[in-house]
Every structure is written in structure tokens, then in C-alpha cells.
């Protein structure tokens, strides 16, 4: 799947959120921008993945980052603190009809309330 094509289960009814994610302005605020890109996409050990996840834990754009990876079906790398294997389980939940906001709230421990700023998705 193309990195710019939303996962088929999310194409209907998520227009504003998908547009905000696709604009990508949130990416400029990522903590990962201050680290070596290899950390996020290297064929890594558990120790390296744990380091990446720990950096993500305090990132101000962790929620839209993880949403991006789920919506646009990123196959590689650490996004929002989760690697591809961890995200696979979440993508499966989306295919069963669970909403993106509910999945994010469950994983990140945040309330389900729709964000007032779609980029905060």
C-alpha cells in the first residue's frame, strides 16, 4: 500500500483527520527530528527499538505519528513508539470496525474525545 493512500477501512468518515495527517505539519514538531534517522528505520535489536520507543514516549506529536502509521499503513520503522509488528495488531483492530480514536486512546492511555485540533489526532 502506498504511504499516501489511507487504509481502506478509514477512507469513509475520517476526512478532516486524514487531511490533517496528510498535510504533515505535525512531523516538523517530532522529537525524532533531533536524532539519527537510522534509529527509526534500521533493522534493529530490541535494545534499539526500546531506545526509539523511549524517545517517542515524551514526543509532543506521538499521537498523530502513530495515527499516520496506522492510517497510511507504514510497513517499516518505529512510528509513535511502536514497531511494525506492534502496529499490525492495531491495524487488525481497525479492520474489525474499531475507530482510530478508540485504538489510539487505548494504546496511548488518552481519552477518546475527538481532538479540537485535527492535527492532534
TrEMBL record:
<keyword id="KW-0408">Iron</keyword>
<keyword id="KW-0238">DNA-binding</keyword>
<dbReference type="InterPro" id="IPR034768">
    <property type="entry name" value="4FE4S_WBL"/>
</dbReference>
<keyword id="KW-0411">Iron-sulfur</keyword>
<feature type="binding site">
    <location>
        <position position="65"/>
    </location>
    <ligand>
        <name>[4Fe-4S] cluster</name>
    </ligand>
</feature>
<keyword id="KW-0479">Metal-binding</keyword>
<keyword id="KW-0963">Cytoplasm</keyword>
<feature type="domain" description="4Fe-4S Wbl-type">
    <location>
        <begin position="31"/>
        <end position="89"/>
    </location>
</feature>
<keyword id="KW-1015">Disulfide bond</keyword>
<keyword id="KW-0804">Transcription</keyword>
<comment type="similarity">
    <text>Belongs to the WhiB family.</text>
</comment>
<dbReference type="InterPro" id="IPR003482">
    <property type="entry name" value="Whib"/>
</dbReference>
<feature type="binding site">
    <location>
        <position position="59"/>
    </location>
    <ligand>
        <name>[4Fe-4S] cluster</name>
    </ligand>
</feature>
<feature type="binding site">
    <location>
        <position position="32"/>
    </location>
    <ligand>
        <name>[4Fe-4S] cluster</name>
    </ligand>
</feature>
<keyword id="KW-0004">4Fe-4S</keyword>
<comment type="function">
    <text>Acts as a transcriptional regulator. Probably redox-responsive. The apo- but not holo-form probably binds DNA.</text>
</comment>
<keyword id="KW-0805">Transcription regulation</keyword>
<protein>
    <recommendedName>
        <fullName>Transcriptional regulator WhiB</fullName>
    </recommendedName>
</protein>
<dbReference type="Pfam" id="PF02467">
    <property type="entry name" value="Whib"/>
</dbReference>
<feature type="binding site">
    <location>
        <position position="56"/>
    </location>
    <ligand>
        <name>[4Fe-4S] cluster</name>
    </ligand>
</feature>
